[in-house]
Structure formats: C-alpha cells, structure tokens
Amino acid sequence: MQEAKTILYKYWGYKSFKPLQEDIIIAAEGNCDIIALLPTGGGKSLCFQIPALQKEGICIIVSPLVALIEDQVNALQAKGIKAMAITGGISYQELDTLLDNCIYGDYKFLYLSPERLQQDLVKERIKLMPVNLIAIDEAHCISQWGHDFRPAYLNVSTLRTLHPEIPIMALTATATKKVIEDISVQLELEDPKIFKNSLERSNIRFSVVTTEDKNYKLLQLLNDPEESAIIYVRSRNATSEISNHLNLHGYSSTSFHGGLSSKEKTKKLNAWLKEDVKIMVATNAFGMGIDKPNVRQVIHLNLPESIESYFQEAGRAGRDGKPAVATILTNESDIPVLKNQFISCLPDLPYTILVYKKLTSYFQIAFGEGLNTVHDFNFAEFCQHYQLNNLKTYNTLQLLDRISVLKLSQQFQKATNLQFIISNKQLFFYLEENPKFDPVIKSILRTYGGIFENKIQINLTAICKKAGTTEKEAVSILQNLKKDKIINFEHQENDASITFLVPREDENSIYPYSTYLKDQAINKTKKIEALLAYVQNDKICRSKQILSYFGEENSDVCGICSVCMPKDKYLKKELIKSIYNDIVALLKQEQANSRTIIVKLPYPEKAILKVIDLMLQKELLTITATNTYKLKNK
C-alpha cells in the first residue's frame, strides 16, 4: 500500500485513506471482482482511480451521470493524468479518433455512458485496449430491484465478454441485499468481494414534520438566509413557484429541473456552487454527481418515491461532516397523491398491450413489420387521439423502453416552452386590444406560476382543452404573440421519436415480459409502502429505520432525529405570557427575525419559536418581505 499512499498524496494531497478505501484498493490489486457500498461522500472514485494508476493500461469507467463524468475527467486532467470522456454529441469520425487514442495514446482513464456500449465501433476498439480495471459507478442502476433501474445499464455486461480476465469493480451508495445480489448476477461477477461501510450519517438530523401550511413551515426551517440548502419538489412548475416565494421573503434562491437547456442548467448550478445563490429549488433531476460540502439543509416538500431515492437526496446535506438537517414536510393529502402518481398509474399487462397496439396502429405498422423503424412522435397528440391517461401511458412507454420492445428518445416531453417577456400590466393593455387571444393567455396564466420569471414547459393539449380551441389554432396564437414580442416561444411538432426494436407481433411482443411487469408493480408498491411506513412511524429512531431498510439491523439510535429529540415541553401560561410581552416590546422598537429575537430574549429557543408560532396563528404578527416579524397593528 505504500505506492498507493504515495499516489494519494502526490495527486490528491491526502496522507491517509477513508474507511474501507484501503481494503478495496488491496482487493483491486489482487485482481478480484468487487462490490463496494460506500455512503455519499465516502470517496468511491479513489477506489478505482488509485489501483488503475498503479497498473499499466487503461481503466474503463461506466457512469450514467454526464455531469459527474465531466467533473472527474476535468479533475484528472488538471492533475496531469490522461483521461477522456465519451458521452453524447460526438461524430463518428471524432469517436473513431478518440478510441484510437485510448489504444495507442497512453491514456489512464476512459469514461463512458452506458449507451455507448451498444455501438459496434466502441465494442471493437475496447477489445483492443490494454484494460487494467473496469469500474461501474452507480451500479444499482443495473438492477430492476434498484430505485433507479436504467435499461442501458444492461449493456455493461458486454465488458465482461470483451475482457473476461479483467476485474470489475461495482460501486454504489445505496443498495439493499437483493440489489447487491442482482448486481453480481447482471455483471457476471466471479465470487466478488463485498465491501460495505455503514451507511450511517451521524451528522444529519433526519426529521419528518406534519404541517398543513408547507410554505410557512419552509420559511421557519430556513431560519438562516446565508445557509446553503436544497429544496426538492415534485413538479417543474413548483420549482419556479417556491423559488419566487423564497425570493419574495428575502432569500436567495434559483430553480432547477430536467426541462432546462444545458446552458441554463450549468448557469444555475454554478451560481449555487459559487454561493451567488444560497438555495436550490429542484426536482429530483438535480443532485446526482454534485458534491457541495456545506449544504446545511435538504428539505422535501413532497414525499419521495422510495427510501433509496430519499436517502440519496438527503445525503447531499452535511458532506463536510458538520451538523445538517434532512426534513420531509408532509400532511394527510400527500399520501393519496403519492399512491396515485406511483401505484395507481403502474401499467399492467392488458394496458401495456393496449398502448403497444395503439402505437403500431398510430404509425400504421403492419403485422411482422417495423423492426428498427424510427418515427417522430407527439406524445400529447397520441394520448388525446386514443383518450389515454397521460401519466399511465408515459409509465408504459418507459416500461416498453426498459424491456427493449422500443426505444423512446431523450427529447421526450420537451416540445413547448414559453415565457412572458412583458409585465403583467403591459399584458393587460395588450389583451384589451387583442381580445381574441384572451382564452389561450388566461388558460396559461391560470395553469403556470412563475411564467413571467422563467421559461416553462407547458402542456399544449391541456391548455387547448381549457381554452376550448385546437392545437393548431393555439400554436398560431402563440406564434403571433412571439412576433409581437409578448412571449418567448419554442415549439416542436414532435416532442420525441420512437424506434421499434422488434417486429410487430401484438400480444406476442409483450407476453414474454408478463412476469417482469407483475414483479415491477409489486416492487414499486413495496417501495412506496416502506417510504410511507418511515414517514408515519414516530416511535423508532429515523436514522435506525433507514439503516434497517438497508440491512443494518443493529445500529444505535441517533439521539438527534425528530423521534429521538425530546418533544416540546408544555409551556406554562406564565412563561408564554412573559415571552409574549417581551416579543411585543422588542418588535415595537424594531422589526426582527427569529434569530435576533432568540439572541435578545433570555428564554429557551424552542419556547420562543413556540410563542412566535402561536402569535402568527392568532394573526398578531406578520412576516415582511425581508423575512422579519412585525406587529400586526404597526
């Protein structure tokens, strides 16, 4: 290990390894297949980078995270280590040259997206490379029992065929026992050495808070505007709405979701990483591969879909080892919403066959035909034409993609983007002069918040239904508005493409996967039930519940979560009155935020916050735009 420690210090400046890193590196030096489970921030990348640098040849790393691939390649290149990334957007000629460089150019690392392993050219050249190690990052993606199964990951086992003697290292932060077993089978690992560090994050306070007013509670939780935080929401529209809400109350925030362009994503991410904005409001499209050490809070305004995804997202807090908080804000109405979104809309065998038949009819594919044909596809129009449930149909298309009956393009649901570029007042005057545009514009404004501040993807079919018009007429109106410089408007006639990967055989194309469909529905339902059990269980330590889910049955109680911490003591009337009088006296002199009130008054913090809460409920206080409190009558 002396050579490994020398490399560690030379390139990374560390004098010692984190827990388990040394054991994993020793196993890699011994050419063993490895499954490594390290918590978020546990230093997974060094586990394959150091043994690869110790050996002659090149290490191939497969990762689904383009942002992480680019970060790691840039970091290695900055250290003078020859590394290369082959993801998307590369011409055949350029790909040919890059692969040749990996064979003859003394490169140490080649990062690939799993989709690249479908290309014959890539497979042919990899066979000629002097490979010394194969690393599979986010390895849980290869398992249908994992929380983020990706069909393209099934191509990864090709590497075992191309280089059967080269060891494979599979790395992940979250995996149950069943997923670990599946990783081993799918990657064809030979007697793998399994390294599993405890997933315990002792510096994170896991909390579940029940509240009917999530926006108000959110402002209470974010009591320091200078702290870095991530707020997860379910929908793209909500990212803008919550971000605007926070900015109005004196916070510095921005929004992030999968519908943004690469340029917009990079701009928003960099602003957050550089502390130009403190809070990122995002869908679950944000966070994978992002390593910001000083995130003090991760707050979920909607229930996540599984404990795996929650633990991964919550784990982005406190990577510097300092105290951090991960909170789920919930109420009774969340449960039916979650079940409807993730259980009620799961496709069964009859519905999957129905959607497949409708697709082949839609594209007029004859029986026995269609193999490898590519078709432009308007998802909303398809659902409207056959009166299909949008969410359930989307889940069905994803499933058909997963079982390789068809391939759904990456551009799915990115058809229509819109932003108003004039003020509300100017729009009012414009509508007075152009009343024929009123139904469409009003339907958009009633449906999408934040559309004056951000470009938002809209569902044109839903807007047409509300406005009582056709899609053709709506597009014509929106193009007029663009011409008059009222809106920025981008519209694609086809928001996706579909490639049929098997000839049309109707039921026979789907029947072989009937067991898989049933298992997937059962698996998804179990994950939702486990998440709901976690949220509703206020008797057992929250950290202990999470660790138990991942197979760590003998963990200690954390002592800091919302279950372990002592419940609020009942405040005596005399104490409430005393705190109330002092708060009133203070606010008569000046407006103040909760932190200032806590510092200036000689009472326990929880007691002060409880009285502030009571005063807000009784409408004795109001919150200003700068997030300070003032007396209602002042």
Structural account:
The chain is an alpha/beta fold. It has 5 domains: 2-196, P-loop containing nucleotide triphosphate hydrolases (Rossmann fold), CATH 3.40.50.300; 204-331, P-loop containing nucleotide triphosphate hydrolases (Rossmann fold); 338-412 and 496-505, Arc Repressor Mutant, subunit A, CATH 1.10.10; 416-491; 573-631, Winged helix-like DNA-binding domain superfamily/Winged helix DNA-binding domain (Arc Repressor Mutant, subunit A, Orthogonal Bundle), CATH 1.10.10. 44% of the residues lie in helices and 15% in strands. Strands 3-4-2-5-6-1-7 form a 7-stranded parallel beta sheet, sandwiched between helices. It has a 6-stranded parallel beta sheet with strand order 8-13-12-9-11-10, sandwiched between helices. Strands 14-19-15 form a 3-stranded antiparallel beta sheet.
CA-based gyration radius: 27 Å
Shape verdict:
globular
Q: What fraction strand?
A: 5-15%
The biggest beta sheet, please?
7 strands, parallel
CATH class of the largest domain: Alpha Beta
Span between termini: 69 Å
The stretches of 5 or more residues where confidence is low (pLDDT under 50) are: 567-571
Helical residue percent band:
40-55%
What structural class do you assign from the helix and strand content?
alpha/beta
The CATH H-level homologous superfamily of the largest domain: P-loop containing nucleotide triphosphate hydrolases
Number of helices: 26
CATH topology of the largest domain: Rossmann fold
Total number of strands? 21
Q: Walk across the major sheet and give the strand order.
A: 3-4-2-5-6-1-7
The pLDDT mean sits at: 88
**Which architecture name of the largest domain does CATH use?**
3-Layer(aba) Sandwich
Instruction: Count structural domains.
Output: 5
